[in-house]
Amino acid sequence: MTTLRPLLALAASTLALTYATAASAQAAPADTQDAAAPETAEDQSDIVVTGTRTAGRSRLDSSSPVDVLSAAALQRQGTTEIAASLAAIVPSIDFPRSSAVDGTDSIRPATLRGLSPDQTLVLINGVRAHTSALLNTNGSVGRGSAAVDLNTIPSVALDRIEVLRDGAAAQYGSDAIAGVVNLRLREARSGGGATVTYGQYITDVDTARGSRSEHDGETVTVSGWQGIALGQDGFLTLSGEYLNRNPTSRGDFDPRKTPIRVRSRFGDPDVEQYSFYANAGKPIGDSGWELYGFGGYQHRDSVSAATPRIVGGTGGNANASADALASLYPDGFTPLIAVKSEDLTVAGGLRGELSGWKVDLNLSYGRNKLTFNTRNSGNATYGAASQRDFYAGSLAYDQIVGGIDVSNELPLGEGTINVAWGGEYRREGFKIGAGEHASYDRAPGAGSTLGSGAQGFPGFQPSNVINAHRDNVSGYLDIEAKPNDALTLGAAVRGESYSDFGETATGKLSARYEFAPWIAIRGTASTGFRAPSLQQQYFKSTASVLNSGNIVETGLFPSTSGVGLALGGKPLRPEKSRNLSAGIVLKSGGFDLSVDAYQIKIRDQIALSENLTDPTGAPPVIKTLLAPFSVTAGRFFLNGIRSTTKGIDVVAHYRTKTDNLGTFDLTVAGNFNDIKVTRAPGAVTITTPIAGVPTSTAPLPIFSRQRIISFEQGTPRTKLVGTVDWSLGDLGLTGRASYYGDVTQPSSNGFAADDIHTGRHTIFDLEARYQVIRNLNVAVGANNLFDTYPDYVKLASSRGTLLNSTGLVGFPYYSPFGFNGRYLYARVGLTW
Q1: Is residue 795 left, alpha or beta, with left meaning phi > 0 and alpha meaning psi from -120 to 50?
Q2: Of 168, 654, 699, 763, whose CB neighbour count within 10 A is largest?
Q3: What's the fold here for domain 4-491+498-831?
Q4: Where are the domains of the chain?
């Protein structure tokens, strides 16, 4: 019954919109219908370039479902984060705000249709964006992925975002298994604007051990843009944004020491960043050709918190490493992880017409570098002589992409056929840089009970350093035929050749048929792939531990390294998918409704294995096998997972202008998603031929229930969003209700009774705007108006398992809407 309630609510809302459309049409007097007629769906703002290479297609004429989000819709919120804005509007997108997961606190990934963040391709003005250097290795949603950081682009630089909810690898290449997000930059040769936004969380926090009030997370955002004319026909649009956000803290009370108080800083990191973007285009005389280019740079300083270390603990709370630093931190300490991100994008191209064919030549470069520092910490190896701050190393990823796209719309009987073809070359690089010696060192004679390296985030060691590259070339053919006004048929095929794993080919078929101007059906069938990222192939992170007086390493290793091969690792293969979708589109005046069902089957999916080590008391098989590598345990990336994702996307939209009550823009949208892991790697037996030791281990889990549940239930299976936009003269109002189904944060012990659940919750947002004078506007609003939180982490499960013994975590970090509570904000905007 609980599953049916959101479905019934969405159906009722859709019917209400349909009734409103009919009632509006019947009530309008004949002589005033033209003046008050709603804007049609064929408005220029609905023309899309994603998912089709035919000019002039609207989102409702497309064979695949496409969401078009305007800059105004993105900015009518309390946040300027692109990922958070998208998640608030598009039900199929989620942006979990994880905490206490190292670098992922600062570089948070978004998901589409519950799939891995790296299974969604991101474009900027149709050009492939570069991923972050970060590999998510801890227990967050998106574990094991290296995804594009959407928040490196300021929202003020955007004109719109197009979200293609369909497989598109045959059209765009690797990663487009779940879909495509195309960020389209603002184009202006005059005018400009500036905005200042201030907000903070004013919330009551109820956790398992008590309640408190918090006023934190103060955020100031200053942004602006300016259009500049280049000659008589060119443009240059400059955009910039500065953001300063204080941290939040939503941990529970820590009972391990007296007095009992909140000791953790479980919440959003402290962030200061500035971003710049430019977009330009200039025709070359009367030749019909145009030079264009865009680029941006962002510098972000982010500081998150690791788990606090207490001094003087006993039993299970004992921490020898913290005790060794007691002279520096008598009451314990909370290590801080500082991540400096520098992100660069530069692209340019030439487009025009040659013998009737439209030609687009482009070249782009993107780079992301992350520098890690561990602060307010210590290396227990040195005791009282330890330094407190450490340089912990760096990660860097870059890519060069060069492409050519050629197309021409030709006559086909009574209709047309658009033929597009092209090619692309891409070179990628990934680097790991070592931290300073003290960040990972263990000095001779250190006690075996002490942990090594900087507490919270030990530095990358010299043995972790890597500098890897690869390149690939690809070519595609994309045909879209419209033999008559009712029928659209499409076919695309793409071949790719990678220097590290070989060749792959993908294809796509699509069709749309319009029975009448108000009703059409559409569908697609495609194959897709995602190449294993360089981060997944080469990332290495180790921590030194002392074993019988010898320094050994344990951690994450490449699958083809000595450690990986000894544990059964193999070269990674690309993920493959088969996508099917079918939908119906209804439209009448200002009303439109689309319902699209989909199925995505993925094989050879890549995931991070469990840490393989000899169980306590078991014969030292793995220890002996890995002894030549000075390693006692390890984990690595592997293929072998199969999953099936099924779901339905529903979007109902109605827009109308009235004579006296203003303009109403109503949207009700929902995503109903179900993911099943149909095959996972089973337990493995590690063998060694070394004489004098046992020949094999007992079966060891390599992919546990915890990982399967994360795949299947780590994002909401039901999400509904209802939005009302109203304007009358100088007044405007936006109200939004977002329903999130339950999300499961799985236990590490394999018992379902010990899983942590977020519960089912509805979040309400409200913003009011007023145009003070022609060029000045103000707004006030609240995100999460009624201060709703996910279910807090209980002290113990129904089995009696302690879930919250330390109070470090107050709420599930899998929560799809975070756990910060009510956010109040005000905004002042100026245009010229």
Answers
A1: alpha
A2: 168
A3: Maltoporin; Chain A (2.40.170)
A4: 4-491+498-831
Q: Which residues contact 560 (CB under 8 A, 6 or more apart)?
A: 537, 569, 570, 571
Q: Are strands 776-783 and 502-516 parallel, antiparallel or unpaired?
A: unpaired
- Find, among 803, 808, 819, the residue nearest to 263 by Cα: 808
Q: What is the largest CA-CA distance in the chain?
A: 98
326 in Cβ contact with 310 (< 8 Å): no
Burial class of residue 565, CB neighbours in 10 A (0-12, 13-18, 19+): middle
What does residue 826 show for φ and ψ, rounded to 5 degrees? -140, 145
d(CA 168, CA 184): 18
pTM of the model: 0.91
Mean residue pLDDT across the chain? 89
pLDDT tens figures, 378-417: 998 899 999 999 999 999 999 999 999 999 999 998 899 9
| Span 332-346, pLDDT tens digits | 999 999 999 999 999
Q: Percent of the chain beyond pLDDT 70?
A: 92
Tens digits of per-residue pLDDT, 82-131? 999 999 999 999 998 888 777 888 888 899 999 999 999 999 999 999 99
Assess contact for 505 and 573: CB atoms under 8 A: no
In the numeric block, which tokens belong to residue 109? 């990934």
10 Å CB burial of residue 719 (0-12, 13-18, 19+) is buried
Identify the three-state secondary structure at position 244.
strand
Phi, psi for 160 (deg, rounded to 5): -170, 170
